[in-house]
Every structure is written in structure tokens, then in C-alpha cells.
Design brief:
The complex is a heterodimer. By secondary structure, chain A is mainly alpha-helical. Chain A has one domain. Chain A has two helices and one strand. Chain A starts with 7 loop residues before the first helix and ends with a strand. Chain B is of the alpha+beta class. Chain B has one domain. The longest helix of chain B is centred in the first third of the chain and has 20 residues. Classes of the chains: A mainly alpha, B alpha+beta.
Chain lengths: 169, 94
């Protein structure tokens, strides 16, 4: 063995060193390190679990939000539909009312026009008759002299019936 | 002021008399001044005028003919009257 260069004592010392080193490492380094690693692993697991839980919650919220948005849209559509229906009803009513009013105005205007026409016609008739009589009066006044007037008076008297009634003034 | 009852009665009687006389008074209105000939013709046509009190008036607007009044009654046989009637007729036409 000595010829090979292997020192038994050294080897033994190294072996003992190694064992001591191993024991010390295992006791003072490896265990804490392993527990540290385990702790870290647990922490990681916890984080993962929390993350999953948060994700689940997020999904639930998203779903809820989607549902609410959908419901809101539906309700908005319904309100819009109702409003449109109401508006078209009001529009129809207004149109009917306006048509009725227009017809009334037209009728009233027609009646007014008729009345105006009648009144104008009466006025014209009156003026024409007044003018005609005025002209006749003037003409007779100028044409008839005293003699003619006497003759006309005689004629009127002779053409009267025998019984003439006086009427109340 | 108190009026004597006798005077009052006399006044009343006089007024009544005047009123009666007025009722009996004829008014003949013509377009020209009428003479006796015309008066006799009128009296011939209206015997009621024979013994009545007649007042004669002239109104040129009559043009020709007569208007005879007694009280509130009237007889209009003048040209003016006929024209007025004609006017009423025209007004009544539609």
C-alpha cells in the first residue's frame, strides 16, 4: 500500500473528516436548508392556491358582469322599445289632433267666407238699389216739370181703387 | 204751485178737444201747390175728406202723387212712396 502511495492513516483521517463533514452538514446545513426549501415550497403552494382562488373569483365576477351587462342591455332595449311605441302613439295622436284642428279651422274659415260673401252681396245689393233709386229720383225730378207732375198725379189718383185703406204709420 | 182745479179742468178739456180735432184733421202733402181742381178730385176720390178739416203741404221730394195723413194713419200714393216700396222689394230679393 505504501508503494502505491496510499496512506491509510490519511485515508482514514479523510474518511473520518468526510463523515464528520457529512454529519455536520446534514445536521446544521441540510436540515435548515431543506426546511427552508420546504417552507418555500409551501409558500409557493399557498400562493398558487390563492392565485387559483383569485382567478376563480375573477371568473365569477366576469360572469356576473357579463350577466348584468346582458340584463342591462335587455332592459335598455325594452325601455327603448316602449319609448318608441309611446312616441309613435303620441305622434299618431298629435297628427289626428292636428288634422281635426285643421279641418275645424278650414270649416270655420269657409263659414266666415260664406258669411263675408253674403254680407258683401247684401251690401252691394243695397248700394246698387240705393244708387238706382237715387238716379231714378234725380231723373224724374229733372224730367218732370210742373205740368207733367200734375198729369202723373192725376193718373195716379184715377188708377187708385175705389176703396183705399189708410195704414198705420 | 197749486193750479186752480177749474183752470186745470178747462185746460184738460181744451187739450182733449185739440187732440180730437187733430185726429179728425187731414194733411194732404203734394209735390206741387194744388189748386181747387186737384182738391175737388181728391175729395171725389176720398169722400171722407169732403167735410173734414184739411191742411195742405208741399213737399217736392214726393216727385208726384200725394201723401194723405190722418192721425197716425197714412196713405202714400206718391212716386217717392212707390220707389221706397220698390227699394224694399229689391232688398227682399235673393
Amino acid at each position: 500500500m505504501e508503494n502505491l502511495g496510499i496512506d491509510i492513516k490519511l485515508l482514514l483521517a479523510q474518511a473520518i473528516n468526510f463523515v464528520l463533514f457529512f454529519i455536520i452538514i446534514k445536521k446544521f446545513v441540510s436540515k435548515p436548508f431543506m426546511s427552508f426549501l420546504q417552507e418555500e415550497k409551501n409558500k409557493e403552494k399557498e400562493k398558487q392556491r390563492l392565485l387559483e382562488s383569485a382567478q376563480k373569483q375573477e371568473e365569477a365576477f366576469l360572469l356576473k358582469e357579463k350577466t348584468l351587462t346582458k340584463r342591462m342591455k335587455e332592459e335598455m332595449n325594452k325601455v327603448l322599445q316602449d319609448a318608441k311605441l309611446e312616441a309613435s302613439k303620441i305622434k299618431a295622436d298629435l297628427i289626428i289632433e292636428a288634422k281635426e284642428e285643421a279641418a275645424t279651422i278650414k270649416n270655420n274659415a269657409k263659414k266666415e267666407m260664406e258669411a263675408e260673401k253674403e254680407s258683401l252681396y247684401s251690401e252691394v245689393k243695397k248700394k246698387v238699389s240705393d244708387l238706382s233709386l237715387f238716379i231714378v229720383n234725380k231723373a224724374l225730378d229733372e224730367v218732370l216739370d210742373e205740368d207733367l207732375k200734375k198729369k202723373v198725379t192725376q193718373k195716379i189718383l184715377s188708377s187708385l181703387p175705389n176703396k183705399v185703406d189708410f195704414h198705420e204709420n | 204751485m197749486k193750479i186752480d182745479p177749474r183752470i186745470k179742468a178747462d185746460l184738460k178739456a181744451r187739450l182733449k178737444q185739440d187732440l180730437v180735432a187733430l185726429k179728425k184733421q187731414f194733411t194732404v202733402i203734394s209735390a206741387f201747390k194744388i189748386g181747387n181742381e186737384e182738391i175737388s178730385e181728391i175729395k171725389k176720390k176720398f169722400p171722407a175728406l169732403k167735410d173734414a178739416l184739411i191742411v195742405y203741404e208741399v213737399d217736392k221730394s214726393l216727385i208726384a202723387g200725394y201723401v194723405i195723413k190722418i192721425g197716425s194713419k197714412v196713405l202714400d200714393v206718391s212716386i217717392r212712396g212707390k220707389l221706397q216700396n220698390f227699394k224694399k222689394l229689391i232688398y227682399g230679393l235673393d
